[in-house]
Amino acid sequence: MNALKLRENMAGYVLLLPSLLLLIVFVMIPIVYSAGLSLFSWDMMRPKPTFIGWKNYVTLFHNESFYNTLWRTLLYAVLTVPTSMILSLGFALLLDKGQRFVLSIYRSLFFAPIVTSTVAISVVWMFIYHPDYGMANAILKWFGLAPLRWLNDSQTALLSLAIMAVWKHMGFCVIIYLAGLQGIPAELEEAAKIDGAGLLQRLWSIKLPLLTPTMFFLLIYLTIEQLQTFTQIDVMTKGGPAGSTELIVMHLWNYAFERFQMGYASAIAMVLLGIILLLTWIQMRLVGKKVHYQ
What we know:
Layout: H1 2-37, E1 40-41, E2 50-51, H2 55-61, H3 64-95, H4 100-115, H5 118-128, H6 135-142, H7 157-182, H8 186-194, H9 199-227, H10 231-236, H11 248-257, H12 262-286
Subcellular location: Cell membrane
Membrane topology: Multi-pass membrane protein
Protein name: ABC transporter
């Protein structure tokens, strides 16, 4: 029995080995290298970095622009994560009882933004937000509202990016929610109907509690994803206007590839990693306790 169990374990380890190697090469080693580089001063021009200890971190925590970008990043996450989860849940509930053929079509439509290049999507949304002939202002005009400058106004630029992010991630969330909804045993709903439970009662007492693992996964996934937002900002605003859309990864990129302060940029990356780990731990401690597993 022990020999059989050992062979089964070895087979599992062999199957995990390719993924484990990819994780080590493309995730763990870069993290360790970046952590080490954050203790050095290096502009990529000199052959060898200069060791300066914790100076990069001291400079970082005394840099007001870092706190501004961190605040904007957290605000961006607050704007996008709950909105994406709530709207996608509504769409998933509407699609849950659809016919299989129709449901497969809607799944493809919702999932299309996920598999489309972020650069291509950003270019399309730049046209949508164009102040003169964009679709967004055409819709506002149709409702009798004044046009906005969207990406060209520091008051609306971050909100404009948040709207695009919600649209882009909604498809993924809808698919995940649908998988969770279809995993709920039909017998529970049938029993609730027999007991006289209405639609809202079944939603509140059966579906939502059994969807909490799905919600918990999406909460952590979306939080991590939004804290690392970069591509659409680089394409659409470059962090402007007046730095109103410069989030923390864009801030990191500017120091790394415009100012060539690789040690300081690595320190920003390590702080971002710490923030992500801290928020994930807080979510697991506060929200994880309320998750109901079947």
